[in-house]
Amino acid sequence: MKIINFIIIFLSFLATNSFAQISNTDSIEIAKYLEIEYKMWDSICFVQTKIAKEEISNGQLTFVIPKGMVEMYESDTELDSILSKYNIKTMSQGIFCTAPSDKQFCYGDLMNQEIERKFGKDFITEKRIEAEKAYVKKNINKIFPSSDCDRNHSIYPFTKNLDDFLEQYDKDYFKTFIYPPSYIHRKEDDLYSWTEVEFILTVNGELKKLKVHSSFKQPYNKKFAKEFNERALNFVKKIKWIPNKKSGIAVNSKESVIFMYDHENWKR
């Protein structure tokens, strides 16, 4: 399968470059090229399918992990270890936007369908969840990006999930925010000014490595940077933040909150 993977990568590269070279020619030449390309992928799919059928008939199962234009995980090593207990191997295969979607994953589709038939449709999903938990426990001291953490959890004590948190914290901030009398407000077509606070939120709920920065589109407003920075920092420090979670496990995480000034949602 390593040879097949190499051919797929090579053809995807060839397709991208070849198409670029003929992009200025007429539509007939492009149509001819696409027909030839599709035939090449058709041949690859035929070979992949044949190999998959032979291995399945010999009791050899391989779960193929797509890479590229799909959701990806850091727990592939853990998944490989878990699936090995069921005599299932794993391998990765790139997914390319330049290749026909129905032709480049023929081996993986057949293998993954056979695994689902034999072990159940939720088998891989359940094992991936198990692998994710194992990865987190193995890397419990790692600082995870907030974007990698659970969406059904909120670090903000006044909301229950990530979506509510992203809508609520800034509204709470601006409830008591008063602009300086001489502050030049944003006009309708102007870019926004903002203050961002970045911090590490530990598994114990502590804040570390706080950083604050303000950006003002009106040069005159830069005189308020220190004041706005202090206000944002004080707001963040007063909140009793809840440790973030990944796969349901409390983790250290890198967080940031942004306060955008003169945003229509916050006008009182």
N-to-C order of helices and strands: HHEHEHHEHEEHEE
Contiguous low-pLDDT stretches (5 residues minimum) are none
Number of strands: 7
Mean pLDDT, all residues:
87
Structural class: alpha/beta
Shape descriptor reads: elongated
Based on CA atoms alone, the radius of gyration comes out at 26 Å
**Helical content (DSSP H or I, runs of 4+):** 40-55%
Largest sheet: 5 strands, mixed
Distance between the termini: 62 Å
Strand percentage lies at: 15-25%
Number of domains: 2
Number of helices: 7
Question: Could you explain the architecture of this structure?
Answer:
This protein has 2 domains: 2-138, no CATH class; 143-266, Fusion Protein Consisting Of Minor Coat Protein, Glycine Rich Linker, Tola, And A His Tag, Chain: A, Domain 2. A hairpin with a 5-residue loop joins strand 4 and strand 5 (207-215). The strands form 2 sheets. Strands 3, 4, 5, 6 and 7 form a 5-stranded mixed β-sheet that branches. Strands 1-2 form a two-stranded parallel sheet. Helices cover 44% and strands 19% of the residues. Helix 1 (2-22) runs antiparallel to helix 2 (27-57), helix 2 (27-57) runs parallel beside helix 4 and helix 3 (76-84) packs across helix 5. With 268 residues, it is of the alpha/beta class.
